[in-house]
């Protein structure tokens, strides 16, 4: 299994100068290649690929005014072009929007493949760096594992991090258990399980909202280009980093606990990008990080031999009675508890949804049944298109 460990490190002044120049060159090459590809499409509807941009990079290095590109390792520059190619591939496939230009204040990152760094005696030596990086090894890399890729990242808060990727053969499946669980994701309750448990949402952004608001207000008052504005920008970045760190820590602990305790985990295939278009719920959904929860559950289940199931997003989990199967016509978001008109069972909206999600997921895993409702919106739309004109 492929894993990546992230560490914080503290570069020397010479290393920081070289790394900052490397990040700047990577950003310049990425933006220049993006400009050339965009211009070629608008002028002649011609798609430029990675091989053409790689040839352009060779020509750019020969220009006298661009001689600074030769002062850094060539590997991160080539990796930046590969990342741009991946961004365009995702765009043409309809998975993402058109690639954006990279900005200096975002920090940036540089990826070093195996030919551009050395891992010796538990230390990392980057290309053109004489000294090893001063890494805070919060956890050791498993014995016998050799790093395949190293990514250096500078955060807007001026923190340096290094991500070390390697193949870990020591990962073993967890002991098999007979427990299965359905999970319904929410805002007030981050997770509601089919066992009847609810895990509250810490709402990390809301806790720091006033502090972040004052920092942004202070930033807006500073003169652009001044040192005081840079200090204020850094303060805002540190608050955002604190929010990100606490959220990530909580989600990792939560998903790890769910994977350890259950053999089968069933969730809904939520269209988060569509849901955040609702301006009233966008901030709460983004702060809850539903996509990150499902992503972590998916790869941790793959690591530890668990079964991860996603059911169709159109399955009426909230409107269906988990006791008798009756489906009500409407279920507004303000209704948190309801009574089934058929069997008179009293339901908590989130717990009921998680029970239905588990039942649907087990049906999919056992017999491959479809859980898509016959009268879903997409089916109705298809029927209307196929309806002959009178």
**Average predicted local confidence, pLDDT:** 90
Approximately what portion of the residues adopt beta-strand conformation?
Answer: 15-25%
Number of domains: 2
Largest sheet, if any? Answer: 5 strands, mixed
Question: What is the global morphology?
Answer: globular
What is the alpha-carbon Rg in Å? Answer: 25 Å
Spatial ordering of strands, largest sheet: 9-8-7-10-11
Question: Could you spell the SSE succession in H and E letters?
Answer: EHHHEEEEEEEEHHHEHHHEEEHH
Beta-strand segment tally: 13
| Helical/strand content category | alpha+beta
Low-confidence stretches: 373-390
Question: Distance N terminus to C terminus?
Answer: 59 Å
Number of helices: 11
Indicate the percent of residues in helices: 40-55%
Could you please describe the fold and organization of this structure?
This protein has 390 residues and is an alpha+beta fold. It has 2 domains: 2-167, no CATH class; 180-377, no CATH class. The chain has 11 helices and 13 strands. It has helices spanning 13-44, 50-62, 74-92, 204-207, 209-220, 227-261, 272-275, 282-288, 290-303, 349-367, 377-386; strands spanning 2-8, 108-113, 117-120, 123-126, 147-154, 160-167, 180-185, 189-193, 198-200, 264-268, 307-311, 337-339, 346-348. It has a 5-stranded mixed β-sheet with strand order 9-8-7-10-11. Strands 1-6-5-2 form a 4-stranded antiparallel β-sheet. A two-stranded antiparallel ribbon has the order 3-4. The chain starts with a strand and ends with a helix.
